[in-house]
Amino acid sequence: MGPRRYHGPPVTPSSVPPALPPPLPAFHHPTYLVRRKVFKLFGAAFHIYDPEGNVAFYSKQKAFKLKEDIRVYSGEDQRQELLVIRARNILDIAATYDVFDPSNGNALAGSLKRKGLKSIVVDEWQFLDGAGREIGLIKEESLVLALLRRIILGQLLPQEYNGSIGGAPVCRFKRNFNPFVSKVKLDFTADTRGLLDRRLGIAAAVLLVAIEQKQS
Fold it and tell me: 82, 114, 122, 131: least buried by Cβ within 10 Å?
């Protein structure tokens, strides 16, 4: 049985305890660039760069898996596994992706759930905490651009998403048009109170490149 859905009163910033990122320095940067590796024969791979252009994380999406299974490592050597992003179901337009932390006994850091039918028009995701309660949202910024992107221009238009916890802005994702390389810029600078667990933010950026690329 999966985590319970939250049916209580709305979560407000004051009621959400700050989620400290893991102590690894790579999780503490204010901005990141997630870039999909080109010309990979099976699966997918992503480099995640810090503001200085150094590789902060390396991620791999396993090929030939019925359920999405994405790993995030400290580097290309893949010696230290930092995050596991795993889909609960095989095919589901309202898919939920659990984010585990192997360095903390595979603890569930939280989950990301795509809001099914709503995302057909405007992409929308939920941030879920470790108990399965909705604590925030990621939403595509412009309805007009979303419609144009889906109906006419496809990847020619950029995508921008805003992330919030209890209505308070915590992150922003931006994907510019590039016919050869899929990449997303992630910005945490709005999260001055540390409301968002950075592990969920990094996982969300990887998913926006990996999953949305398939569904565009």
Answer: 131
| DSSP secondary structure letters along the chain | -PPPPP-SSPP-GGGS---PPPS-GGGG-SEEEEEEPSS-SSSEEEEEE-TTS-EEEEEEE-SS-SS-EEEEESSTT--SEEEEEEESSSS-TT-EEEEEEGGGTTEEEEEEEE-TTHHHHS-EEEEE-TTS-EEEEEEES-HHHHHHIIIIIGGGS-EEEEEEETTEEEEEEEE---SS--EEEEE-TT-TT--S-HHHHHHHHHHHHHHHHHH-
Would 112 be classed as within a structural domain? yes
pLDDT tens-place values along the chain, 216 residues long: 444 443 444 444 444 444 546 658 889 999 999 998 665 555 678 999 999 999 999 998 876 566 788 999 999 999 999 999 999 987 666 789 999 999 888 889 999 998 865 545 578 899 999 889 999 999 987 655 555 555 655 555 567 899 999 999 999 999 876 666 778 999 999 999 999 999 999 999 999 888 765 554
Domain contains 25: no
Query: What's the total number of domains in the chain?
Result: 1
**Residues of the domain holding 152:** 30-215
Cα separation, 160 vs 106, in Å, equals 31
> What global pTM score does this model have?
0.81
CATH code, domain with 157: 2.40.160.200
Amino acid at 72: V
